[in-house]
Amino acid sequence: MPSKRGSYPAPLPYHQRTLSSSSSSKLYKSNKPSGGWKRPLRWFLLIGTIMYIALYILFPSSSTPSQPQDHFAELAIAQQLHPSPPTTASIPKIVHFVYGLKGPDPTLDWIHYLSIKSAHDRLSPTTIMFHYHYLPTGPVFDLARPMLTLHKVDLAPTTAPFGDRPVTHFAHQADLIRLDVLNHYGGIYLDLDVIVMRSMDHLLRHEFIMGQEGIGGSVGLCNAVILARPQARFLQRWQHTYRTFDQADWNYHSVVLPGKLARHFYGEITIMNHTAFFWPLWDSHGLRTLFLEKNYDFADNLATHVWESAATPHLMAGLTPSLIRNIDSSLYCQLRHLLPHDGQEPIRPCRILTHSPRSDHLVGSWPLTPVPLTLNPSPATDTSGNDMHGILRNGFFLPNDDDGVYLSGQDSYLFLSMPTNLTLTPLTIQWHTKITTQPPVNDQGTVMMVQTDVCKLWIKPGAVETWTLTNGWVWERTSSVPLSFPADDQYHVYTLVLHSPLSSSLLAPALVVYRDGYVVASSQAPTFENGIVRGIWFGSAEPAKYQDPWDTSASLAAWYKKINIWERALTLQDLRNDPLQSFKNADHQSWLLE
Ligand SMILES: *[C@@H]1O[C@H](CO)[C@@H](O)[C@H](O)[C@H]1NC(C)=O
Ligand SMILES: *[C@@H]1O[C@H](CO)[C@@H](O)[C@H](O)[C@H]1NC(C)=O
């Protein structure tokens, strides 16, 4: 299923509900329903009603589902249906993938292989059914093929079932095929960009399961992971609602509608919380967590969706096993365990730190010497011993060790991931930059940007700006201090020191930038909020949306080397003591001491 783009819709007025349907599973003992199932059903309904009333009296608020007042066209359709009962007592351990609806000769990407491999290794299914129309070709598919039971399907009808609405996009056809296949066989449907993290055996006793997309299901219930018994009642109702299908409404029938229906048929569906299948999300924060940061360990995930269509244009472009082995992003740290193993190299572990364990509070040190690997992006190596992680995309090195890296001003950047609990204050970032006049300096370019969830501290060639998230999604510039960067083709040492605005004083302003030992910018009370630092950008900052072409308007062409980051505010004394022999001109008088 393509990613669900756009901003967050308003949260739906219900939250995670995981009503078990295990009691109903006792109803259907044999694989085929016989006439005898009706009597226990009556008893079940009677006992259920009595228990419901008892629970209502005992726990009125926690046990009563909200009684939504909303009425929508699909609700009537779903309510009119009297679904036949599921035909098995538990969800069969059959995995289903649907692929190859767009021909001819589709190929499989590495992420698809890893999706299949993750289902194979972690779900231990009896069968992995690969429903295709055009059979994929190529070496990656050949590698996956032994795990698969191939099943050719017709292209989905180009009109929705139970109606005559046109369904022409292959993604919507895939939506219909998955429901068909689940209704027929039952099992675990997975999109080919879902990575299974752990066994789901404990879920198989349920009738029908979906997971929340967004916190509290704010987007809906995503159809990229569905577990179902054959003829699950909710599934049948959902299929019938395709009578109102409108292909202009991209994710309505696939994500939004199941969320709306679930509130009315809560006894027929088990809802997993937002971390079970679809976290991190497809928004900038989520994609950054997956592909750039190294701070998420998937401990609360049964699976994760990597949002292929949002990540492919940029973040996941050119994904190869070698990238997965060498780039330590949250996702790749997990994926590398699924790669075909040549038995030679041990799988490199990924250490996730909450804080720097060093007594000098050094978080990381990146000399930025040439990388011997021919990878793009390539890893930027931290020499502090903390195993911090860096990603260099489209960086250029000269052979000389001391030249640093050139970021071209195109989609070219260095991103450094930080410990999970590192905050904006106190913090010191020191780096060496060389700017030439060719190409002309872009005033809006990014020299460096510290990214938190609530605030961005953005150093541009003309100013130090703070940007704050207002109303939950609008970034607004909240302060600006002028700062110029000489384009003199010389390396200069810059040091940004951040104190908490609350503890700042004349001698230790909340924000100071030094160039070669001189204060070049400072502010007593810049308006920034202290937040967890998600990462630090050099050369270019995060675009508004990762699925769009890279926004080069905030890019700067410049050279960088010797980046050091401390989880404390270094004093001038510290800087003069030359903490890493990198601060050359600190004996110059600073105005702070005048
Ligand atoms: C959400 O679901 C996952 C997977 O079932 C579980 O590990 C996690 O503890 C749940 N989180 C909450 C807050 O219930
Ligand atoms: C890191 O932050 C989390 C969430 O704020 C907190 O629960 C945890 O104790 C912190 N850990 C450390 C080592 O500071």
UniProtKB/TrEMBL annotation:
Family designation: Belongs to the glycosyltransferase 32 family.
Domain of life: Eukaryota
Matching Pfam families: Gly_transf_sug
Organism name: Absidia glauca (Pin mould)
Keywords assigned by UniProt, alphabetized: Membrane, Transmembrane, Transmembrane helix
SUPFAM superfamilies to which the protein is assigned, alphabetical: Concanavalin A-like lectins/glucanases (SSF49899), Nucleotide-diphospho-sugar transferases (SSF53448)
This protein's record includes keyword Transmembrane: yes
Parts of the chain that traverse the membrane: 41-59
InterPro entries associated with the record: ConA-like_dom_sf, GlycoTrfase_DXD_sugar-bd_CS, Nucleotide-diphossugar_trans
Keyword Aminoacyl-tRNA synthetase applies: no
Listed name of the protein: Glycosyltransferase family 32 protein
